[in-house]
């Protein structure tokens, strides 16, 4: 994907450290020297192009509820259908395909462990597939980010 200057600047500057204030997009515009409407239009364009998956916080799940990594072994011909079903849950904040027996992986976050158990049971009932449930035992803090290189 070929990014324009503003898209490039937004990703490089704000994939970590989005402003925590009442008007974050206005603050982003101030920092980048443009208008808030330009920031919003740029984010919308990246979203529509499929190059932006989400804008939101990453938080310590144990302080705000419960979280688990889950996987399903989905027959190849059903992968799209099952992925769309998984994506219907607001509790899912990542969902991705892998080349493995367990080929659909997703993270569930909810208010408590019983809530996650209900979602996993519902998915099993709806899909006929048994979720692999991998709750976090030890947290590893990885500051994942990608520098885009030179500005266009």
TrEMBL record:
Its EC number is 4.1.1.111. Keywords: Lyase. Gene3D superfamilies: 3.30.70.3460. It catalyses: siroheme + 2 H(+) = 12,18-didecarboxysiroheme + 2 CO2. Pathway: Porphyrin-containing compound metabolism. Residues 66-134 form the Siroheme decarboxylase AsnC-like ligand binding domain. It comes from the Bacteria. It is an enzyme of class 4 (lyase). GO terms for molecular function: lyase activity. Residues 8-50 form the Siroheme decarboxylase NirL-like HTH domain. It holds the Pfam family NirdL-like_HTH. Probably forms a complex composed of NirD, NirL, NirG and NirH. All proteins are required for the total conversion of siroheme to didecarboxysiroheme. Involved in heme d1 biosynthesis. Catalyzes the decarboxylation of siroheme into didecarboxysiroheme. Belongs to the Ahb/Nir family. This is siroheme decarboxylase.
């Amino acid at each position: 994907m070929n990014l324009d200057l503003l898209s490039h600047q937004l990703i490089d500057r704000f994939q970590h450290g989005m402003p925590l204030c009442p008007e974050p997009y206005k603050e982003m515009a101030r920092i980048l020297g443009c208008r808030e409407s330009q920031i919003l239009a740029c984010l919308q364009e990246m979203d529509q192009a499929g190059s932006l998956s989400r804008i939101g916080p990453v938080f310590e799940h144990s302080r705000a509820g419960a979280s688990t990594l889950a996987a399903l072994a989905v027959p190849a011909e059903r992968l799209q259908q099952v992925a769309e079903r998984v994506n219907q849950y607001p509790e899912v904040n990542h969902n991705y395909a892998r080349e493995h027996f367990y080929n659909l992986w997703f993270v569930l976050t909810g208010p408590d462990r019983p809530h996650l158990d209900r979602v996993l049971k519902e998915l099993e009932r709806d899909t006929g597939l048994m979720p692999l449930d991998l709750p976090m035992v030890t947290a590893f803090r990885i500051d994942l980010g990608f520098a885009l290189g030179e500005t266009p």
